[in-house]
Design a protein that fits this description.
The protein has 417 residues and is of the alpha/beta class. The chain folds into two domains: 241 residues, no CATH class; 105 residues, Glucose Oxidase, domain 1, CATH 3.50.30. The chain has 18 helices and ten strands. Helix 6 crosses helix 8. It is globular.
């Protein structure tokens, strides 16, 4: 991506606009599903609907995966590029400032939309928080907001009232509503570029990081919408085939369609519900044998144990705090975190956001400077260290740690008993 952009200006924007076309087709497919009565479809038409939706989702998802690779590349390349111009003391702060997002995430956009709904329907903290019309307005835009990779949760009146209350009491909303919010960030970037006389390569890298962060956030939203509809389609398939939904969701699309051809689910589906892995080799997608999954996983991660209770990662949002660790990997674990604790997870998927909003700091195994955790931590203004590879393996619930996001280091001060 970087070399192409150097040769041809706006090549990445062209890729983004190609993806936008795929996204539009995917969104049209989602809108079409709203008008369908899935229960009334024949098995053949349900299979066609499933295939059509999945193909459009796959097209949208595949091209957007470029952003992941670029994010990981930038973790090393961008600081190294700047280090040739800046001294070590300024490097971390300037890297963070120059890689700041230039668009609101959908997480923050939802806050603004909720605030607009509250204004439109005269909802306030002093009287009512709910009307049918206000809820319908919100649900039309965010019906998918509670869906995740594990399950589809239906948006309720209670969810809406809770969100309205939170937004009306959210002090950070003033920054988001300020029209010059991103103009100030842009101005700060321009001042840094001018002061340190950053060249063409540095400016291109900054532009690509901005596009990538915006693109990744758009993709994340599309994933959540896709999760909603995949769970919906899978639920209908499970209902009429008498196969457990948990089993259906461990099958590939091809295997699901085979059920309609009177083929039984795979005998190994019970094992898949415990552990399941696939790998791409030479363009072919292969299932990893159950007994080999852990071996392959360890080989891919190449995990090294943290020495002397110190874990290293990449700074996504600066700051230093001490606090109690809570390992949060699934939506079922979200409720165990208390306000002011430190969330440690593989990555900050959207379904973990209720836990993230309570956290004092974020530590992840995965992710680059353009990842979801990097975007969200900056919006929440809390310290964040990403890409540790081992945090969830080394740290335990109850450990008392220091998160030094100024230097990308987590230190265990006291192990849990």
């Amino acid at each position: 991506m970087l070399s192409e952009e150097t040769k041809k200006s706006d090549s990445v924007k062209e890729l983004y606009h190609r993806w936008r076309n795929d996204l539009i087709l995917f969104e049209k497919s989602c809108n079409k599903l709203f008008s369908l009565n899935l229960k009334a479809l024949s098995n053949q038409n349900l299979a066609k609907t499933y295939n059509s939706f999945y193909d459009l989702y796959l097209n949208e998802y595949s091209l957007a995966l470029l952003t992941d690779g670029f994010g990981f590349l930038m973790d090393g390349y961008f600081p190294e590029l700047l280090s040739k111009i800046l001294d070590g003391k300024k490097l971390s702060d300037i890297t963070i400032n120059l890689s700041a997002p230039m668009n609101l995430s959908f997480f923050e956009r939802e806050k603004i939309d909720l605030y607009s709904i509250a204004q439109k329907f005269h909802l306030s903290s002093r009287n009512k928080f709910y009307t049918k019309e206000a809820f319908a307005d919100y649900a039309q835009q965010y019906y998918w907001i509670k869906s995740n990779y594990e399950q589809k949760d239906i948006l309720t009146k209670r969810d809406f009232v809770k969100k309205i209350r939170e937004v009306l009491m959210d002090a950070s909303l003033e920054d988001l509503l300020e029209k010059n919010y991103f103009k100030k960030i842009r101005k700060q970037k321009r001042e840094i570029i001018k002061k340190f006389k950053l060249g063409k390569k540095e400016r291109i890298a900054i532009k690509l990081i901005e596009i990538t962060m915006y693109w990744q956030d758009k993709r994340k939203k599309a994933n959540m919408i896709a999760n909603y509809w995949l769970h919906t389609l899978n639920s209908e398939i499970a209902r009429r085939t008498k196969v457990e939904l948990s089993a259906i969701e461990c099958l590939t699309p091809h295997e699901i369609i085979n059920i309609f051809k009177n083929k039984k689910p795979l005998a190994e589906v019970d094992k898949r519900q415990k552990r399941f892995g696939i790998i791409s080799i030479g363009g072919k997608i292969l299932n990893i044998p159950y007994e080999k999954i852990e071996e392959v996983r360890k080989g891919l991660l190449m995990v090294n144990e943290g020495k002397d209770g110190v874990i290293h990662g990449t700074t996504a949002s600066p700051g230093m705090v001490n606090g109690v660790v809570k390992i949060i990997q699934t939506i079922k674990e979200v409720s165990k975190i208390r306000k002011g604790e430190i969330i440690v997870c593989s990555m900050t998927r959207p379904e973990l956001m209720p836990a993230v909003k309570k956290a004092k700091a974020i530590v992840t195994d995965e992710g680059g400077i353009t990842c979801h955790a990097a975007i969200i931590s900056r919006e929440l203004k809390i310290p964040c260290i990403i890409g540790t590879k081992i945090a969830t393996k080394i740290l335990k619930d109850g450990d008392f740690v220091e998160v030094d996001a100024n230097n990308g280091v987590i230190r265990v001060l006291e192990k849990s008993k």
